[in-house]
Design brief:
The protein has about 260 residues and is of the alpha/beta class. It has 2 domains: about 200 residues, Rossmann fold (3-Layer(aba) Sandwich), CATH 3.40.50; about 35 residues, no CATH class. It has 8 helices and 7 strands, in the order βαβαβαβαβαβαααβ. Strands 3-2-1-4-5-6-7 form a 7-stranded parallel beta sheet, sandwiched between helices.
Length: about 260
C-alpha cells in the first residue's frame, strides 16, 4: 500500500495504458479519479477497481477545456479530498501523413489533446498541491519525443513539448515540493498499436515481430510496465527524483 489514502487523477483512464495505471495506483491504496471523454470506458475501469476493493470516481472530461478541468478538480476534492498525484496519460496518435498532407485542424487537435490538456491539468494541480505541501505530477510521453518518426510531425512535436513542459515545471514547482517527471513508453501492446498497424498496412503480428526483434530484451512493453513506473514515481521512494524522462521500451531507444 505505497499510496494509501493518496488522491490520484489519471487522464485517459478509459482504456489501454491509462486503465493499467489507474488500476495499479488503486491497488497501492490510491483513491483514483478517472478521466476520459468516454463515459462507458471509464465506467469499465471504475468497475475493475471497485471489484478489487479499490476506490474510484469516473469524471468524463475533455482535458482541453479549461472550465472542464476546473470542474474535474472540484469533483475530485468533493469526493476524496485534494489531489496528491496527477498522471497525464490522455493522448491521441494524430495524423499519420507527410507534412504536406497534414491539415491545420489535425495539427491543432493533436497539440490540444497531447500538450495543452496536460498544461491545463498541471496548472490546476500546481495550486492544489502547493497549498497542501507537495505532490507528484507524471506526464506520459513517448520515445517518439526523443527519436522522431517521419510522417508523424504533430505527434512527435507534442511529445517533445511534453518533455519541455515537464522539465520547466520541475524547476518552477520544486520549491513547493512538487515532483514532476515524464515516463516515455516505446510501443505498447494496446489497441493504439493495432491502429498503427492498420494505417501502416501491415498485420499486428508482423508489426510486433519487427518491434520485438529490434529490442535488446526481445520484447516490447506491456501496459503494466508503464503502470509500475508510475507507481514508483508517485511513491515516497521517488521523493528526490524530478525533471526526469524515463524510457520504458525494452531497450529500443537508449540515451
Amino acid at each position: 500500500m505505497l499510496l494509501k489514502q493518496k488522491v490520484a487523477i489519471v487522464t485517459g483512464a478509459g482504456q489501454g495504458i491509462g486503465r493499467d495505471i489507474a488500476v495499479a495506483l488503486a491497488r497501492e491504496g490510491a483513491r483514483c479519479v478517472l478521466v476520459a471523454r468516454s463515459a462507458d470506458r471509464l465506467a469499465e475501469t471504475e468497475r475493475i477497481i471497485a471489484g478489487e476493493g479499490g476506490a474510484a470516481l469516473a469524471v468524463p472530461t475533455d482535458v482541453g477545456d479549461e472550465s472542464a478541468v476546473a470542474a474535474l478538480f472540484d469533483a475530485a476534492r468533493e469526493r476524496f479530498g485534494p489531489v496528491n498525484i496527477l498522471v497525464n496519460n490522455a493522448g491521441i496518435a494524430g495524423p499519420m501523413a507527410p507534412i504536406q498532407d497534414v491539415t491545420l485542424e489535425g495539427w491543432l487537435e493533436t497539440i490540444a489533446v497531447n500538450l495543452t490538456g496536460p498544461w491545463l491539468t498541471c496548472r490546476a494541480a500546481a495550486t492544489v498541491m502547493a497549498n497542501q505541501g507537495g505532490g507528484r505530477i507524471i506526464n506520459i510521453g513517448s520515445i517518439s519525443g526523443k527519436r522522431p518518426l517521419a510522417h508523424r510531425s504533430p505527434y512527435c512535436a507534442s511529445k517533445m513539448g511534453l518533455v519541455g513542459l515537464t522539465r520547466s515545471l520541475a524547476l518552477e514547482l520544486g520549491p513547493a515540493n512538487i515532483n514532476v517527471n515524464c515516463v516515455s513508453p516505446g510501443p505498447v501492446r494496446t489497441a493504439r498499436l493495432e491502429l498503427i498497424a492498420e494505417k501502416a498496412g501491415v498485420t499486428m503480428d508482423a508489426l510486433l515481430a519487427n518491434l520485438q526483434q529490434g529490442a535488446p530484451l526481445g520484447r516490447i512493453a506491456e501496459g503494466e510496465d508503464i503502470a509500475a513506473m508510475c507507481v514508483y514515481l508517485a511513491s515516497e521512494s521517488a521523493r528526490n527524483i524530478t525533471g526526469q524522462d524515463f524510457t520504458v521500451d525494452g531497450g529500443l531507444y537508449m540515451d
